């Protein structure tokens, strides 16, 4: 993927050279994409990249390794691609900066310091992989502080933490599918996942049990603890398996396909950026909102755009746990995990984009009733969906797109799909929402 400012002076020469590269590497199991940096903020955040690095090329391989060439110029593209194919380019790590000071009881680890602190220090390391928004992680923090203080006179033990949303993790060693996930790497190289109760005493006993009496030959073979998983640890907060933004898609397409999930979330983020920029130009309904809940909000791209224009808004990005786990931080936005079919967070207004087309009428009504219960008396739901015409128009681009997506939903899901305006109105009224029902239509011929 190449990201470049399409309005920049070197944009055309870079894109022209990139097209040459595409032709020369045809048939070599490489897919090529070019993105406008201005409209690709979600992608840049996902890869942990900065605008100062643009123009850039980044390659993601099937094993999720990433290779970066920042501030690329035309004359460097050929040689860098050759070096990549020859295995001469080092993998790029998404990492927070190494802290200048690391004096707290629980040491801060980032991707760039993981080797030094965990793998090469010769220490016994208990490390927590956490997410800043995770409630269980926040409750665990003072307990881990106490554990670290209990070992302050034992130089062979380190208690550490790593923000798993901001740093790449070696997935071949640490299987992080829940927050908090806690591992212990002993001084002799054994890697054990912690699945016990979250008390100071249990952590201390676990460390004492698993640290070697004396350092032997080091081994990096990961092993799993055979300890019984308690009911408390089974409540491992708000993350199950990385998957796409809507539950049924995760189940149908394979929730164990992490790379697909990442690309799906990225695709949803980028399409949201294109649509929301137009909506924010013409729709003024966010001006009187104080708390906005985005139901099915994915990785938070929509709320990031809304709050950047309306900074007075408190945003709540609501989606299943396996999606919000990958959501980057946005000013004024809180990421909350849950199930829209059970309940949704409270707010002045609720936003939903391309949610209804994933569900049949019965579940759409259930979702809207949950929204009704979470809104104040004068609250509102703002929904963005494709509206199908009563009669097909083969020469209309929007109509053709609508039918294409409708067929896609039918083949993938077997229910849901795109609807006409009257079909939307029917289940909106049934779900307790009354008039006024306002619709703003945007098509290839009618721009709102």
Indicate the topology.
Elements: E1 2-4, H1 11-24, E2 34-36, H2 41-47, E3 56-60, E4 66-69, H3 74-85, E5 107-108, H4 114-119, E6 124-130, H5 135-150, E7 157-163, E8 181-185, E9 191-193, H6 200-210, H7 231-234, H8 247-253, H9 258-282, E10 291-295, H10 301-309, E11 314-319, H11 321-324, E12 333-337, E13 349-353, H12 361-374, E14 380-384, E15 387-388, H13 397-412, E16 419-420, H14 421-430
Helix pairs in contact: 1-3, 2-9, 5-6, 9-10
Strand content: 15-25%
Helical stretch tally: 14
Distance between the termini: 33 Å
If you compute it from the alpha carbons, what radius of gyration comes out, rounded to the nearest whole angstrom? 25 Å
What is the average per-residue confidence, as pLDDT, rounded to a whole number?
Answer: 80
Biggest pleated-sheet summary = 5 strands, mixed
Q: Catalogue the unreliable spans.
A: 215-256, 441-448
Count of β-strands: 16
Helix content: 25-40%
Strand order of the largest sheet: 5-7-6-8-9
Coarse morphology: globular
What does this structure look like?
- The structure is a single chain.
- The protein has helices spanning 11-24, 41-47, 74-85, 114-119, 135-150, 200-210, 231-234, 247-253, 258-282, 301-309, 321-324, 361-374, 397-412, 421-430; strands spanning 2-4, 34-36, 56-60, 66-69, 107-108, 124-130, 157-163, 181-185, 191-193, 291-295, 314-319, 333-337, 349-353, 380-384, 387-388, 419-420.
- It has a five-stranded mixed β-sheet. A five-stranded parallel β-sheet has the order 12-11-10-13-14.
- It contains 14 helices and 16 strands.
- The chain starts with a strand and ends in an 18-residue tail after the last helix.
- The chain has 448 residues and is α/β, with parallel strands linked by helices.
- Helix 13 links the parallel strand 15 (387-388) and strand 16 (419-420).
